[in-house]
Amino acid sequence: MAEQLTPLADDRALLGRTSTAERVSDILRSRIAEGYFAPGVRLSEDNIGGALGVSRNTLREAFRLLTHERLLVHELNRGVFVRVLAVEDVEDIYRTRRLVECAVVRGLGEPPYALDGLSAAVDEGRRAVREGDWKGLGTANIHFHRELVALAGSDRTDELMRSVFAELRLAFHVVDDPRRLHEPYLVRNERILRALSEGKPREAERLLAVYLDDSLEGIVEVYRRRVSEDT
Predict the structure, then answer these.
(1) For residue 44, what pLDDT band results from cuts at 50, 70 and 90?
(2) What is the pLDDT averaged over residues 100-106?
(3) Residue 140 vs residues 49, 72, 195: alpha-carbon distances, Å
(4) Percentage of the chain surpassing pLDDT 90?
(5) pLDDT digits (tens, 9 = 90+) for 51-66
(6) pTM of the full predicted structure?
(7) Which long-range contacts (CB under 8 A, 24 or more apart) does 105-111 make?
(8) Secondary structure (DSSP) of the chain
């Protein structure tokens, strides 16, 4: 837990003078999406509240918000834990991703598109590969899809998908070979980016749909194997 708390202390400055439960939940959601808190980890009110410099009541409200988003679970007399996903959760995450992400690409309209965020995420992924940082590559992959959704220019869609991508990170934690999971999709991100930069949204949507189907199949296979091992 100590190594997870150090970045949270750095996040304390983000709270500013108007510290709210919503802002705390934003920080914790982002940290979950970045992979700092693994599924099943108990979140200590004292440690996290101290790291962020917020009251117990504020932190509990933030926990409640994230529980509503299905990122945390409260267990009576035990505390608050990062949620452990079931296979059905993973399938639903990808169903939502396919509906939203493909619709965003389909509705882009005429090129050119604002692709700086997508390009930066691809560059982030390339750096992670050079450094052998496979967890970082998974984070870059999530950033790519977050930037893809942002092309819609919709705050509501961005807010919806922030929680979905944080849940997705929880799914990544069960993978025992993150390189095998993430590395092939960097090339696919590059292909989607290239199609959009060439003004071919239909091709980008086709690539994205196949990408999501293949990714779901790989994750579900790992989940089913893990469930089988644990029973």
Answers:
(1) very high
(2) 98
(3) 28, 23, 19
(4) 72
(5) 999 999 999 999 999 9
(6) 0.83
(7) 105/148, 105/151, 105/196, 105/201, 105/204, 105/205, 105/208, 106/201, 106/205, 107/152, 108/151, 108/196, 108/201, 110/199, 111/196, 111/199, 111/201
(8) -HHHHHHHHHHHHHHTTS--HHHHHHHHHHHHHTTSS-TTPEEPHHHHHHHHT--HHHHHHHHHHHHHTTSEEEETTTEEEEPPPPHHHHHHHHHHHHHHHHHHHHT--SSP---HHHHHHHHHHHHHHHTT-HHHHHHHHHHHHHHHHHTT--HHHHHHHHHHHHHHHHHHTT-S-HHHHHHHHHHHHHHHHHHHHTT-HHHHHHHHHHHHHHHHHHHHHHHHHHHHHH-
pLDDT higher than 80, residue 26: yes
| CB-CB contact of 98 with 209 (8 Å) | yes
User: Which residue shows structure tokens 């505390």?
Assistant: 79
Q: Please give the structure tokens belonging to residue 98.
A: 């396919």
